[in-house]
Each structure stands twice: as C-alpha cells, then as structure tokens.
Amino acid sequence: KDVQKESEPHVYLSKEELKEKIQSYNSSVTDKLKMTLNTNGIYTGFIKVQMELCRPITVQSSQSQGRCAPSNNETAFYLPDGCVNTLHISSTNTVREVIEALLKKFFVADNPAKFALYKRCHKEDQVYTCKLSDREHPLYLRLVAGPTTEMLSFVLREHETGEVMWEAFSIPELKNFLRILDKEENEQLQILKKRYAAYRDKLEEALGGVWKPG
Known about the structure:
cytoplasm, alpha+beta, metal-binding, Ubiquitin-like (UB roll), cytoskeleton, 4 helices, microtubule, 2 domains
C-alpha cells in the first residue's frame, strides 16, 4: 500500500557538482537513456511515466488534432494497467509541462488539469508516494535519485482523489463514458445470461433423471 510522503526541497547544484552528478548517473545507466549537459548549464534526459488511470481517456483522431472545439472524431477508452511511456525532457521542464507533453504525445484531448504526477520510491519494505507540485522539475528528481526505478519512478494519475467532478468533463467526453458503460453493461449481461442458461440446462437434466419413469 502506498504511503504518502512529503515533498523534498530542491537543492541547487554548482556547475561542477552537476557535471559530476551527470557523469555518475550515465555510468550507472543500463538502457542507453543517458543525460546530456549543455554549455548553458541546462541538461536533457529521459523519464519513464507509468499510467495508473482509473477512468477512460479521450483521444483525438489525426483529423481533429489542433482543433479547439469538441469533435466527433474523439474516442474514449481505458488504458491498460501498467502502461509505461518514455519522455525526453530538459531540466527546465516543470511537472505541469511534463503532463501536457505526455498527453500531447498520445493525442489525449482531456484537460491536463485533471491529472497529477506522483513520484514513487521503495524504502525499508514500504512504497512511498508523493504528489508533485506543478513547479517541480522531474528530470532533477531523476538525476538525484539515479537511473534505477526502484529508487524513484513516476506515476500519472487522475487529479481528483474524492468524488468525480463530472462538471469538469465536456459533453462529448460524458457521452463517450456512457457509451463505454453501456458496452460493459451489455457484455456483463451476456455473460450472466450464458451462465444461467447453462445452469438451467444442468438443472433440467438432473430433474429429468430424477423423474424418469421405470
């Protein structure tokens, strides 16, 4: 079970400390996702984000990308559990920018304000999670923790932790949700019908054996 943990303060590194930190980080990388330090002191690298979304997301088709108005070319579906995406970002990118870039990469039409980025780490047989503020810098956190995801990993979740704020969703999104729910309801209904039909056949077969004359 996740244990909530307070956010840790940002410690600013000198140019030499930063250089040493990146060299140490790159020497431990096993998946070729290394960091690069530029002459202006800004560094770039990769982070992996696990998607843990309970509700369906709305995705735009290629024809409707870039439009501001809701489009009929939008589809809602559930992401599979454990879906992990890799982003190439810089040390200046904030949490809010990372969320926006992640949604844009997969043509997600939902409002970025509906989502929050969490950091997760393992310590003393416990899993700690902390919701990151919009102004934090994920690549800095990745650098400080090192490349091992056991030390630190990022998770995208819905922003709301209580009741769903349905008024935050657009009409097309709500219609898509209803369509998904209707489909799931029909699928479950068919499963129940098949189950009870099989049970009825077995019961009739058993009764026929009991009441068979002679």
